[in-house]
Amino acid sequence: MRPFTYERATSPADASAKAASIPGARFIAGGTNLLDLMKLQIETPAHLIDVNGLGLDKIEETPDGGLRVGALVRNTDLAADMRVRRHYAVLSRALVAGASGQLRNVATTAGNLLQRTRCPYFYDPNQPCNKRQPGSGCSAIGGVSRQLGVVGTSEACIATHPSDMAVAMRVLDATVETVRPGGATRAIPIAELHRLPGDTPHVETSLERGELITAVTLPKPVGGAQLYHKVRDRASYAFALVSVAAIVQPDGTGRVALGGVAPKPWRVEAAEAHMKQGAKAVTAGLLADARPTDDNRFKVRLAERTLAAVLAEARG
Amino acid sequence: MRNHGNADVSRRGLLLGAAASAALTATPRHGQAMPADADVPSAPHPGPVPIMNPVMNRVSLTVNGAAQTLEMDTRTTLLDALREHLRLTGTKKGCDHGQCGACTVIVDGRRINSCLTLAVMHEGGSVTTVEGLGTPAKLHPMQAAFVKHDGYQCGYCTPGQICSAVAVLDEIKAGIPSHVTASLTDAPQATNAEMRERMSGNVCRCGAYSNILEAMTEVAGQKMADQQNGRDPA
Ligand SMILES: Cc1cc2nc3c(=O)[nH]c(=O)nc-3n(C[C@H](O)[C@H](O)[C@H](O)COP(=O)(O)OP(=O)(O)OC[C@H]3O[C@@H](n4cnc5c(N)ncnc54)[C@H](O)[C@@H]3O)c2cc1C
Ligand code: SF4
Ligand code: FES
Ligand code: FES
């Protein structure tokens, strides 16, 4: 790990302003992703701004009947909140499908959204990787790519976003609230938080430098059967090969997002028009632009089968 | 064109990769030229920042009931603070990356991986390690149950397993759901399936899992019996 200075932020605006002005500054929340990467010198911040003391750890009801989840709410607490369990079950299910009990006790809402890819080459500083070292090449293309993305990828990077929680938030149409270095706030639809890699895979989100996530808001509950199925190499404590977050209404309409297949939670609203026709039709729409590798072609079929299982379960 | 999965390309890619990594290690990392990212939103590498000297910081926290003030490099993880500074070597370092659970301790009532948190982040915090759960003369019920059921072989993962097991029973009691909880709105029970799932963050290379489960089952049963008799479990 590189040496760094450390401070505790005093207010969201202060944290944001400092993160923008101090060279090499980064926020630290739970630290479960950042410290992991700092130990490998994949992340090398010179200054850490600890945002744990900012009081952003509450879950509150919004005037329009939704929920506002503070950026520092721990994954365990969000999954266990009775309002979330009752009305946003897909989110509880996605959260408890991720990481381990120890990690969920520490991992935060914002940190989870901004966790970085688990591409094995990104994690190995001895391998070329456009995301870690822009312009150095992508070792995964033509390398071992079984776990990597099949859609939304580019010639420069085929990594996936590893979060389970984010997939559920995408299907719930969540909004990310932030404060920017000047003190202004904004609301970013979750669909626009993560960027596709294009030829700049090291630029992963639409956040400005220093922009602090303060909360994630969930619109008022939409009901329906809410399910999250995660397929992985172990029954627990492993990242998704493919995951499906779905909300299925009694009349057979609904929403679907996929995890484990793309650089961001993958949802194609147009594909949801085919919900009543079943998994094959929906998956065809979701993965119409898929460009899998020979190693990960199985994910296309797996996504369809997982969705079929989800729809069967939703029908009861 | 992308040659996804083409075997020849992949071999060539590997060789090129090896050459490139050799070149990379030959260049001094410090001050290495990076593309100017200053105007790119959220670019993870904001350009080269000089490497500084170690930075010291003071932190005060309670460990196993005793107040401690430590002067440490900011980089010190809670795990290293416990082991190297406080000489509490019960807590083990397995992977140092959140993947094995050997470093599990209980901080402010919650089990966490002490390898993935900085000591300075726990100013005013309260830490319980395996040494603080019980003493050789007066073992914590979970420690006693591990001994009774042979919940270990080499013992390396054991302190983490025990801290985790204690917290798992509390989490079930607090009604926190898990991946295998059938109904999200009902209170979870201390079933085998629940305990196995919740213990998945603690890896045991000796494979003592079934004995660990027996130990936990016994303590969970005691807890339930104690509650029914209106006694507070130890
Ligand atoms: C062994 C292991 C297994 C895992 N398995 C899974 C899994 O199966 N599924 C899954 O989804 N995840 C998994 N994870 C990842 C885990 O969920 C993340 O590490 C965690 O959610 C990150 O949250 P954090 O608060 O610790 O983030 P940090 O590490 O503190 O931060 C992550 C990033 O977010 C930035 N950041 C933090 N807070 C803010 C804020 N408020 N505003 C702006 N930027 C901010 C930080 O600067 C940093 O860049 C696993 C992790 C490990 C180590
Ligand atoms: S897929 Fe992306 S993260 Fe993985 S090696 Fe290629 S550029 Fe790096
Ligand atoms: S040493 Fe912390 S999880 Fe392995
Ligand atoms: S007892 Fe040896 S690793 Fe668990």
Break the fold down into its secondary structure elements and pairings:
The complex is a heterodimer of chains A (316) and B (234).
Chain A: E1 5-8, H1 12-21, E2 25-28, H2 34-39, E3 47-50, E4 59-61, E5 67-70, H3 75-80, H4 82-87, H5 89-96, H6 101-104, H7 109-113, H8 165-171, E6 175-179, E7 185-189, E8 212-218, E9 225-231, E10 242-248, E11 254-259, H9 279-286, H10 298-315
Parallel strand pairs in A: 1-3, 2-3
Antiparallel strand pairs in A: 4-5, 5-8, 6-7, 6-8, 9-10, 10-11
Chain B: H1 7-26, E1 56-63, E2 66-73, H2 78-85, E3 104-107, E4 110-113, E5 126-128, H3 130-133, H4 141-149, H5 158-173, H6 192-198, H7 209-228
Parallel strand pairs in B: 1-5
Antiparallel strand pairs in B: 1-2, 3-4, 3-5
Helix pairs in contact in B: 4-7
Subcellular location (chain B): Periplasm
InterPro entries (chain B): 2Fe-2S-bd, 2Fe-2S-bd_dom_sf, 2Fe-2S_ferredoxin-like_sf, 2Fe-2S_ferredoxin-type, 2Fe2S_fd_BS, Aldehyde_Oxdr_Iron-Sulfur, Beta-grasp_dom_sf, TAT_signal
Subunit structure (chain B): Heterotrimer composed of PaoA, PaoB and PaoC.
Largest interface: A-B, 77 and 72 residues
Distance between the termini of chain A: 51 Å
The CATH superfamily of the largest domain in chain B turns out to be [2Fe-2S]-binding domain
* Fraction of residues in H or I helices of chain A: 10-25%
* Side-by-side strand order of the widest sheet of chain A: 4-5-8-6-7
Number of individual domains of chain B: 2
How many helical stretches of chain A? 10
CATH topology name of one domain in chain A, in short, is: Enolase-like, domain 1
Helix percentage range of chain B: 25-40%
Q: Sheet with the most strands of chain B?
A: 5 strands, mixed
* Major beta sheet, strand line-up of chain B: 2-1-5-3-4
**What does the radius of gyration of chain A come to?**
19 Å
Global outline of chain A: globular
InterPro entries (chain B): 2Fe-2S-bd, 2Fe-2S-bd_dom_sf, 2Fe-2S_ferredoxin-like_sf, 2Fe-2S_ferredoxin-type, 2Fe2S_fd_BS, Aldehyde_Oxdr_Iron-Sulfur, Beta-grasp_dom_sf, TAT_signal
EC number (chain B): 1.2.99.6
Function (chain B): Oxidizes aldehydes to the corresponding carboxylic acids with a preference for aromatic aldehydes. It might play a role in the detoxification of aldehydes to avoid cell damage.
Catalytic activity (chain B): an aldehyde + A + H2O = a carboxylate + AH2 + H(+)
